[in-house]
Amino acid sequence: MTQQFSLAYLTVVNTPPPEMTYMAARAGYDFVSLRPIYMGLPGEPNFSLAQNSQLLKETKQALKDTGLKLLDIELARIADGVDPKQYEPELEVAAELGGKHVLSSIWTDDRAYYIEQFAKLCELADQYGLTVELEFVPIASVSNLAGVVDVLSTVDKKNAGLMIDIHHFHRSHDTIDELQKVPKDWFRFVHLCDAPGVIPTDHDEMIRIVREARSYVGEGGIDVAGIVNTIPQVPYSIELPNKQQSDLLGYEEFARRCLVTAKEYFAKHPRNKEKVNC
Hints:
The protein is an alpha/beta fold. Helices cover about 40% and strands about 15% of the residues.
């Protein structure tokens, strides 16, 4: 099975969906992973495809021109005061564009509330043939593998899954032994990157690395192959924000280098077919 790759939004942050799609195609990716759900972060542009008909038209044309597929959209956060229903317009557009998955994470400490809201999101996405992939983030409320396993086991939705981000997995101190216990049908794609092996104790430094200083695969200190080879073969969405490298190379060349270094790494670290079936 040939490994497939997607270009994730944060790798080329603030790039409009049509431009990002053409860029991903020229760089050699198989998919693109977009962020049409506006998060209201400082300086973040609003790339809502549901609210901007011209942007949607141009994105459709870019996908048609390139032959790329939309892998997933982000980020359907579960948080206090946020109704999952508000994501529906973007879910509908994602399905219209041929997307398969919706990325989610949890940012409220109220377990009863986030279980209920995540279940609602799954039910809503299911109406559009989409799966919901729950990502744990060390700085969020559900911050480790055990937290996601708890959510997915409790909601028990067929279209709910687990999205492992290599950086977050390492930072959460989770282990490959624990990852091996997770049901294989929970996995549909992975966020691929590398990062320094030493985990920062300073919160601001952790956020800085997450947002702008991740490493090319194989150039950090994480056992990337050990993690991904525990998971069934699924698309790797390269989420590798690195401001220094992208400023130096420009987004397109940086995206290409992210892909080339990842392929070179996996050529040296092939999957153990006896351990994980694809």
